[in-house]
Amino acid sequence: MKRVITYGTFDLLHYGHINLLRRAKEQGDYLIVALSTDEFNWKEKQKKCYFDYEKRKQLLEAIRYVDLVIPEEGWGQKVKDVVEYHIDTFVMGDDWVGEFDFVEEQTDATVVYLPRTPEVSTTQIKNNLKL
To answer: Residue 98 class from Cβ within 10 Å (0-12 exposed, 13-18 middle, 19+ buried)?
Structure first.
């Protein structure tokens, strides 16, 4: 079985997220989503989420492409996750190109950067709602 992992906040879940998860799942047989915790989002990313971790987790678990949701508690856990979960492919959106190449260098996993859905983003949604 080919295992895939991706990371993200997945707040205000939208079709761009679904597209990414679908394309990530196409990379293998089993998709793990490492979901950023509220603490990690606030302390490290300076992001305030609309939905808390448990609600975002519940939404992701309801998506047919997602097989397992685990907490992302810090930037440094990626290599550990790849080893612990026997990951074959590490997937991120192409807005992160080059940022996670070290995963490929330090593990047996292949790093793949998938194109984002250009016409939608959580930031754009939040900005549009302020109008």
So the answer is: exposed
Which residues are catalytic, by number? 45, 47
Q: Distance between CA 84 and CA 67 in Å, rounded?
A: 16
Q: Which two tokens stand for residue 45?
A: 């990313």
Longest dimension (CA), the chain: 47
Structure tokens of 62? 């309801």
Which residue do the tokens 């679908």 mark?
Answer: 22
- Give the chain's end-to-end CA distance (angstroms, integer): 47
If one counts every other C-beta atom within 10 angstroms of the C-beta of residue 117, the result is 16
**pLDDT tens, position by position, 3-59:** 999 999 999 888 889 999 999 999 999 999 999 999 999 998 888 888 999 999 999
Give me the DSSP letters along 47-74.
---SS-HHHHHHHHHTSTT--EEEEE--
Closest to 113 in 3D by CA, of 131, 128, 98: 98
Q: What's the pTM?
A: 0.90
Residue range 50-88, pLDDT digits in tens: 899 999 999 999 999 999 999 999 999 999 999 999 999
